[in-house]
Amino acid sequence: MTTLIDPAPAFVDVEEAKQRLAEHGYLSDDRLATTVFLQTRLDKPVLLEGPAGVGKTQLALSLARATGRRLLRLQCYEGQDETKALYEWDYGKQLLYTQILREKIGAIVEDAADLNESIERIAKQDSVFFSERFLAARPLLEAIDSEEPVVLLIDEVDRADEALEAVLLELLSEFQISIPEIGTISAKHLPYVVLTSNNTRDLSAALKRRCLHLFLDYPDAARELEIIRSKDTGLSEALAGRLVEIVRDLRTLDLRKAPSISETIDWARTLAVLGVEELTSDVLSSTLNVVVKYERDLKKALDAIPKMVDPNAVVPDSLHGHGHGHGHGHGHGDDSAHRDANDDVDGKAARAAKDRPGRHDRGYYGADNKLGPSREVSAGQGSRSFSARKRPV
Ligand SMILES: Nc1ncnc2c1ncn2[C@@H]1O[C@H](COP(=O)(O)OP(=O)(O)OP(=O)(O)O)[C@@H](O)[C@H]1O
Ligand SMILES: [Mg+2]
After folding, report:
1. What residues contact 191, with CB distance under 8 A and at least 6 apart?
2. Are residues 152 and 181 in the same domain?
3. CATH number for position 48
4. Residue 108 belongs to domain spanning
5. 304 and 175, same structural domain?
6. Which residues lie with the beta carbon below 6 Å from any ligand 1 atom?
7. Could you tell me if 230 and 177 lie in one domain?
8. Which of 40, 150, 174, 264 could form an S-S bond across to 10 if both were Cys, CB 3.0 to 4.6 Å?
9. How would you class 130 by CB atoms within 10 Å of its CB: exposed for 0-12, middle for 13-18, buried for 19 or more?
10. What is the predicted pLDDT for the residue at 371?
């Protein structure tokens, strides 16, 4: 059995975790920093759930940088073959070797009496061709077998099939992988494992149980502003603060896809490139497509923006539903011809017109998940076997 070398603790305390993550591009709050700190002390994977663009993947990237570990990433997708996650035999290399060694192989079967005997003799050489030399490690095996401690990111695990989830169950509790032709490979160093999920389906309770679970939501205004600041978007402090407020208002609109942190960053960069000096209704409306990605959402947001910029704004009827953002926010003195933009936003018609739920909206919070019943995955469901031996301590 391999001896596990325990590296020095990554962080002395929660505060250090927070600080080092910040130095490497990730601004966390106490809850998040505590989870990361605990992960490094308890050797437990972290499961991050939450909407798109709230920094789930980025946490793993920054954790790798903050701890000086190499990052290995398994991007999950539907129909993913576990060989792409664990390991596969390098068929090309095996073939190449048999070609090069043709004469040697010929010599082995040269004086065989018949075909049966030839096959028997070749079969005896199996172990040569099914050895570590011909093993192509994929991220999970690579993380276990690495000579250096690593961070293993298992991204968007909710997209993986249940069979792969079952494979993960075994791996995450034992930190070892059994390869029938070779034996059990145990972790030389325990990887820091970060799993992320957008909740397109319920993950098994068994998987959740093995992890420190953290729901990442949109940050509060102060932290979001801090994040924007840290990205050097080029937008002035004052405008960035105002922009964060506008984005937070947009998130209250019950959009099909609410703007996330990444969209706030993109919007800030866009406005900076345009040299904007004031966040007027016109400017925001004409750049809204940077943050709002569905036609229906765009209409809703365009209607609401004048009120966000100026609570006393009035919007002409003729401008509703344009979807282009031209001319919003200009009062023309004829109030009878205008109506309150929020009438539409908060009204029944707007809600009725709401788009069908997509991947990241209502359903994604779980309570309303229509994608199927909660599915339990049994530990033995993976088609590969994992040794039940305890990992070394
Ligand atoms: N706390 C944070 N500190 C620094 N940057 C952040 C933070 N949260 C989000 N970001 C930035 O927001 C962007 C989106 O983050 P990320 O890709 O990690 O989101 P995600 O949650 O993985 O989204 P998805 O579910 O779509 O994959 C990145 O540019 C990232 O740098
Ligand atoms: Mg991600």
Report:
1. 72, 143, 144, 146, 149, 150, 151, 152, 175
2. yes
3. 3.40.50.300
4. 89-133
5. no
6. 25-27, 52-58, 196, 198, 227, 261-262, 265
7. no
8. 40
9. middle
10. 38
65 and 100 assigned to the same domain: no
**Domain membership flag for residue 366:** no
Q: What is the mean pLDDT of the chain?
A: 81
pLDDT of residue 80 exceeding 80, the answer is yes
Distance, CA of 163 to CA of 160 (rounded, Å): 8
pLDDT interval class at 315 (50, 70, 90): low
How many domains does the chain divide into?
A: 3
10 Å Cβ neighbour count for 116? 9
Q: Assess if residue 361 is contained within a domain.
A: no
Q: What is the pLDDT of residue 125?
A: 82
Q: In a mutational test of the pocket of ligand 1, which residue from 151, 244, 262, 290 has the highest number of ligand atoms less than 8 Å from its CB?
A: 262
Residue 152 lies in a domain: yes
- pLDDT above 90 coverage of the chain, percent: 56
Residue 369 lies in a domain: no
Q: 52 CA distance to ligand 2 centroid (A)?
A: 7
Q: Per-residue pLDDT for 316 more than 60?
A: no
Number of C-beta neighbours around residue 65 at 10 A: 17
Q: Whose CA is nearest to atom 10 of ligand 1?
A: 55
Q: Whose CA is nearest to atom 4 of ligand 1?
A: 26
CA of 59 to the centre of ligand 2 (A): 9
Is 71 found in the same domain as 160? yes
pLDDT at position 132 is: 87
- In a shared domain, residues 229 and 349: yes
Whether residue 101 has pLDDT greater than 80: yes
Both 99 and 202 in one domain: the answer is no
122 — pLDDT class (breaks 50, 70, 90): confident
The Cα 273–Cα 184 span in angstroms is 55
User: Residue 27: what pLDDT?
Assistant: 97
Give pLDDT tens digits for 318-344. 444 444 433 333 333 333 333 343 444
Name the residue of 261, 266, 290, 359 whose CB sits within 8 Å of the most ligand 1 atoms, as the mutation to test its pocket.
261
| Closest residue CA from atom 20 of ligand 1 | 53
As a 3-state breakdown, the chain gives helix, strand, coil percent values, each rounded to 5, of: 45, 10, 40
